């Protein structure tokens, strides 16, 4: 029988000051060795989740390319179904299984746009995608391990709702700065440290000047 909630790993590369992108949208913080590590991890999970802004800013493929292995299912959280028909995600949906999770706020025209592609559209949630219910639906499809690859707003939602189990963060040797640049965790944030999830450091791996930190939620 499928678990009611998949094992959820939050994954990102951050600068020393905790940013995941520069003000112009440059987010390539990992080294070539770290991208190989990331792609090995991708090949072992059932699905990769990202938020709409990450698709708009990065135009990612979310595939396994730097190692051999199977592509996980790509799951995009896009409440209003706004991602572009020209995005690599939709353009490659014939070859790579793709789920677009939307909420009831999606317009007819955006639903029609998505339905022109061979993607599965999951409608859940009133305003935003209901992540908890989505995870249950993914679990029912036998998707037991999910990698959340950002961005900061989606990371906050998983943390706030206590829906993650593990974090794998690459600390990259850069300083980005900026009052308005995107951090690993966006949203309103916790008002007290006591409200933060408690994490146990499971391992540290050094890849030259990059450190890969693996935390488990206590
Ligand atoms: N360095 C790294 O490892 C990574 C960097 N990034 C960077 O992060 C940036 C994007 O991050 P953000 O702007 O924070 O956006 P995001 O990628 O977290 O997407 C947020 C959007 O998701 C949609 N959404 C759907 N359901 C939602 C829900 N239940 N709750 C909240 N939002 C929901 C909303 O439209 C919301 O605006 C990009 O610049 C990207 O390059 C993203 C991933 C990894
Ligand atoms: N772990 C990690 N390190 C970085 O340096 C990154 N920029 C990201 N970004 C995530 O990977 C997506 C890009 O994937 P593709 O190379 O297009 O397959 C990007 O959209 C982020 O989710 N992650």
TrEMBL record:
Homodimer. GO terms for molecular function: 5-amino-6-(5-phosphoribosylamino)uracil reductase activity; NADP binding. Keywords: NADP, Oxidoreductase, Riboflavin biosynthesis. It comes from Nitrosopumilus cobalaminigenes. GO terms for biological process: riboflavin biosynthetic process. InterPro entries: DHFR-like_dom_sf, Rib_reduct_arc, RibD_C, RibDG_C, Riboflavin_Biosynth_HTPR. Gene3D superfamilies: Dihydrofolate Reductase, subunit A. Belongs to the HTP reductase family. Residues 6-213 form the Bacterial bifunctional deaminase-reductase C-terminal domain. Pfam families: RibD_C (PF01872). Its EC number is 1.1.1.302. It catalyses: 2,5-diamino-6-(1-D-ribitylamino)pyrimidin-4(3H)-one 5'-phosphate + NADP(+) = 2,5-diamino-6-(1-D-ribosylamino)pyrimidin-4(3H)-one 5'-phosphate + NADPH + H(+); 2,5-diamino-6-(1-D-ribitylamino)pyrimidin-4(3H)-one 5'-phosphate + NAD(+) = 2,5-diamino-6-(1-D-ribosylamino)pyrimidin-4(3H)-one 5'-phosphate + NADH + H(+). Pathway: Cofactor biosynthesis; riboflavin biosynthesis. This is 2,5-diamino-6-(ribosylamino)-4(3H)-pyrimidinone 5'-phosphate reductase.
């Amino acid at each position: 029988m499928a678990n009611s909630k998949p094992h959820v790993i939050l994954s990102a590369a951050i600068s020393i000051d905790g940013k995941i992108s520069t003000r112009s949208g440059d987010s390539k913080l990992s080294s070539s060795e770290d991208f190989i590590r990331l792609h090995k991890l991708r090949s072992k999970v059932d699905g990769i989740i990202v938020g709409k802004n990450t698709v708009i800013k990065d135009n990612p493929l979310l595939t396994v390319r730097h190692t051999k292995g199977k592509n996980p299912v790509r799951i995009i959280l896009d409440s209003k179904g706004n991602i572009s028909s020209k995005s690599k995600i939709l353009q490659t949906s014939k070859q790579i299984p793709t789920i677009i999770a939307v909420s009831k706020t999606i317009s007819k025209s955006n639903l029609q746009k998505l339905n022109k592609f061979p993607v599965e559209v999951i409608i859940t949630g009133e305003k935003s995608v209901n992540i908890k219910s989505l995870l249950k639906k993914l679990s029912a499809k036998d998707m037991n391990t999910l990698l959340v690859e950002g961005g900061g707003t989606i990371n906050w939602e998983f943390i706030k709702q206590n829906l993650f189990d593990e974090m794998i963060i690459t600390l990259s040797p850069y300083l980005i700065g900026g009052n308005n640049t995107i951090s690993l965790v966006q949203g309103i944030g916790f008002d007290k440290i006591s409200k933060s999830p408690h994490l146990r450091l499971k391992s540290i791996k050094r890849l030259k000047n990059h450190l890969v930190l693996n935390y488990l939620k206590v």
